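User: Round two. Same drill as before: sequence, then structure, for each protein.

Assistant: Same drill it is. First protein:
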Amino acid sequence: MKVEYDRETCIGMFQCVDEWDAFEKNLDDGKADLAGAEEVEEGVFVLDVPDDAEFDAKFSARVCPVDAIRVYDDDGEQLV
């Protein structure tokens, strides 16, 4: 499972930070950061989700008010 995070879309509500510890507050930029993620294109970050964090990753995507977080299964199908 992978999570894709579009940092440019983020508006800094930090609801994802409350749901999954992979997201961190960046108060200087007013946006969240996805720790350990790889930037695959400008402002878009991807991270492999550990098995024990799948629920948290999905929930962080569900609570994002601007849909900046998407979760994909191993076949590339979007789950959230």
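Second protein:
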Amino acid sequence: MSQVAVVIGGGQTLGAFLCRGLAAEGYRVAVVDIQSDKATHIAQEINAEFGEGSAWGFGSDATSEASVEALARGVDEIFGRVDLLIYSAGIAKAAFISDFTLGDFDRSLQVNLVGYFLCAREFSRLMIRDGIKGRIIQINSKSGKVGSKHNSGYSAAKFGGVGLTQSLALDLAEYGITVHALMLGNLLKSPMFQSLLPQYAAKLGLRADEVEQYYVDKVPLKRGCDYQDVLDVLLFYASPKASYCTGQSINITGGQVMF
């Protein structure tokens, strides 16, 4: 397979896992991260495992129009095409609404929503130029379907991602480009979730070591969301088998959210 996947936020955590998984499926991978050294490191690991030229690391700030435009040019120069865009960049700041700063709220919108828009715009241009019936997939959250206590900035941005996904799907349907959002359950072992344990404990009135079990108990299938769960669903919607699906917000929540 000569197809090219661009993974925004691919230098760490879930994004890095997706990069490796896509490389294992035969994609050439553009690993993109605001921390360019991390992107380069993941690309080097992929090249060592799957062969030189399997991946390339790029530093880019997804919230900067100029940076994303430069990224698209760089990816085009190295790979010459784009078949799949994964937007996996994200940030969460938790606080009660009275204590939520405008800076934190705006930062959440910038990283979780504006960056998605900029990347989708630039990379869809390349797909259209080359006549590629590509795929755009946003890594979203169940907080994009149901409100999240003390997470107003994150939830607002993720709800916005659903509307943007549907609008992009309508814009790009005539070109055969499909667009989806993956609505993840709690990635309990992820660095982002773990970093929020003290804040979640405070809002729930629990000890920090009780928070994970609290969230597991909310899930009908009685476990958190794993990185592999995300990759499995992503690979289907990136494949020709999902060519008749677009504009969908797909739950990966273990039954916690069912609409």
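The first helix runs from residue 13 to 24.

User: Perfect.
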